[in-house]
Amino acid sequence: MLKSQDIVVLLKVHNLRNSEWTYSKLANSLHMSPSEVHAALKRCSASGLYDSSSRKIRNNSLLEFLIHGLKYVFPGQPGPLSRGIPTAHSAEPLKDLLVVDSADTYVWPTPDGTTKGQTITPLYKSVPEAAKSDSELYQLLSLVDAIRVGRVREQRIASRELEQRLAVQ
Fold this sequence. Notes:
The protein is mostly helical. 51% of the residues lie in helices and 11% in strands. The strands form two sheets. Strands 3, 4 and 5 form a three-stranded mixed sheet that branches. The protein has a two-stranded antiparallel sheet with strand order 1-2. The longest helix has 15 residues, at 135-149.
């Protein structure tokens, strides 16, 4: 059975597709333990989202899950106002593609956040820290959050963006 952090690990592996990585380096970049990363990839392999022999994600399967299943398995609900890091339609790339009222800002809560908005629980507790050091991962996670909590239009645009970014290269 998948856990929400498995999606975070898969998206990071996608970003590292053209470079060598170790469980330890992957874990450090995600602020997780190596055993958590190893267990995540094992679950993803059993779910058909990751090919452990080639050490690559199955892009089409992952995309299908993100677009059609994620919001049901790992739903998100806007919470109370807090300071944090913008996500979903409040972050790039959707921020530039949509006109959204500033009162509808969504954030991952974090003490050092500079933006005030409704909180969205991240897929894993270390997501805000991991996103700070990897802009591509940050954008992918923000798109995933737009699917989890967005309206239909936001979900469609996020889905198109994810399709482009997860395309086999």
